[in-house]
Predict the 3D structure of the following.
Amino acid sequence: MGKLRNDILELIEGNSKKAVLVEGKEDKVAYELHFGKKYSNWENHLLFYPTGGKIKVIDELKQSPDFIGIIDKDEWSEEDIAESKKELSNLIVIPRYCMESYLVDPEEIWQALPPNRRKDVKYDDFRNAVLENLENWTRHAALWHAVLPLYRILKKSGFNQILLNHTDIIENEEFIKEKLNEWHKILDPEDTYKKYLALFSEINSLNLREKLHQWIHGKKFWEQHVSQTLIFFFGQENYAKEIWKRREIPRDWEEIWAKIENYQPALKLAAKVPAGHPKKAKDREEKNLRPSCPSPSTFSL
């Protein structure tokens, strides 16, 4: 039994909790906040456990089919996702590039900010600041998707262990040359650059929501630009946690809810707040204070 599995089993021993493996501590916080909005009793039945990364989640799921795991999509294609889910039925892949992709859409951020923060800032000014240099971030996304898969392709072709870990082929010069040429072709600069340009053209033709949700590196965009923009407009704060706490439950988490409910049937949906409840009145007050902003479908660059 591996250490990670042993640690988790110790935490859930003697209770009705089931383990949900996630990548990092920030992911754990985000999932717990949203599961609290969705289910009234999740704390009694689920344990979100940060493993330290995507590969660690996948590796543990292979060893622990009785656990379930949620990972970022990252640069995975639909084919990559389908192949991984076929191998691991206990794997969930979020529908956006990464968890931080839920923190970079200017309208979603704006709706999650409390009225007292928004009152002295115009939405258009905030939106324009968030989307400043978006073309460069789009270029970065294209380059990322063109370059990063090269390493996986190299690994599948045996790089570099097939040469370094097998002393019996050291005299087989033909095989060595063949492998080196194969790796050279994979890393062909002209081919990679053409892929980069084609990807940039493809991504740049998409609407804003598709760019931000599916392609742009959410973690880097959040850390290097969006979080700094929030600090510039509204002052120092842990905005990631505040946005996760206040934003609506993501509408694209249907697969997450379905798989988790099947995995842990004891979950109960949180009761809807009845009309006339003080919270409803507070929500209406916030809505009335909310400056108007365009629908995502009307965004254009």
